[in-house]
Prior knowledge:
Layout: H1 19-23, H2 28-38, H3 42-46, H4 58-71, H5 76-85, H6 87-92, H7 100-109, H8 111-127, E1 135-144, E2 152-154, H9 155-178, H10 186-210, E3 214-216, E4 223-227, E5 230-242, E6 247-253, H11 262-273, E7 279-282, H12 289-297, E8 301-303, H13 307-315, H14 326-336, H15 338-361, H16 372-396
Parallel strand pairs: 1-7, 7-8
Antiparallel strand pairs: 1-5, 2-3, 4-5, 5-6
Amino acid sequence: MSRFKSYSPDQAYLLPPSVRDELGANHLCFFVRGIVERLDMTVFEHSYSVEGGELYAPQLMLGVWLYAYALGVTSARQVERRVVEDLAFRYLAAGERVDNWALSAFRRRHGRALNDAFTQVLEWARGKGMVKLGRVAIDSTRIAASACRDRVDSEQALRSTRAQLRRQVRSWQKAADRDDAEPAGLEVAVGELKKAIEELPRRLERLKKSGLKRLSRTDEDARFLRQRGGFTLGYTGEIAVSDDHLIVAQRVTQNATDNSSLLPMIDEVNERCGAPPTAALADSGFFSVANLEQMEQQNIDGYVPDSNLACELNLGVRCRGRVYAAAHRRMRAKLRSPAGQAAYARRKAVVEPVFGVLKQQRGMRQFRTRGLEKVNGEFTLATLAYNITRLQALMDA
């Protein structure tokens, strides 16, 4: 009798009847499925007309995408392959072989519905007592656009390109006049160059209307934003995180600086959770005297240092310079106190690990979609997937 187990990969039936038995009852795919079952899918369903052929169920598509983003799989082609090869994906797709075109269309189409699902999950979590809304930490990061840095229009580049194309047309036409026989394809090439020249005024007008010095031709909504190490062509992702590391508000903007984002993010928390936070932590990029005064008027306990005070808190070197606004003086006094320093120190521990997970583990260093509305939907999908994995961890703890 052989001591080896039988090996027959070509047998007709490879898996046990129960996926739950194979993967284990605590597998993430079952938790994702349970969350999706609790959601009201009306907004997804109403975005389609009654005409046309049969569509994949929104529950199927949402479940597959949430599980994919939870694993850091953001490519529709990769998801299409995983739906065939991966048992958990096959379970969420109910055996359907969903193609990448349908997956991509779903992600592009449902920004508003994904936003509604994000809020529903927060409401469910609050009902379970798992969202500590008293204090939130707010931060932002740059996320690259799905756009080529070289396909960018500027006024100088457009004028230079027009002159270069005109010289090329004249050169080819002179060469054709000198030769007895016109080279094959020359007329077509010259026609394409003339068409490109005619297109340049429209591109220049579009650039002027945008009010920007440089405008991407691939993604007109993307902006050149400063980050550590230089500039990136992309967007600014902003989140507010509760003490139990749940994202309670999120959005994508074109903002080059953060000081205009603090109050809108507090309003986002209020809209998502039905109540404003009692305290808000943010780094010096969100500082402005107007922000401090508004937070005091709203009875929000803010911890937002100016850039000089931030250096003092981080390096231990006392900052100098006069402070004229009363709200600014009060903020400096609060953050120099032991209690204020301890409260502000929580910011790094609360919000920065969340961005670390999103960017390092979940692949959110570059968007897959284009346009501000679509990247907002994609960012919502990524943050919703993060919240679901965090909720599972909190429930298992």
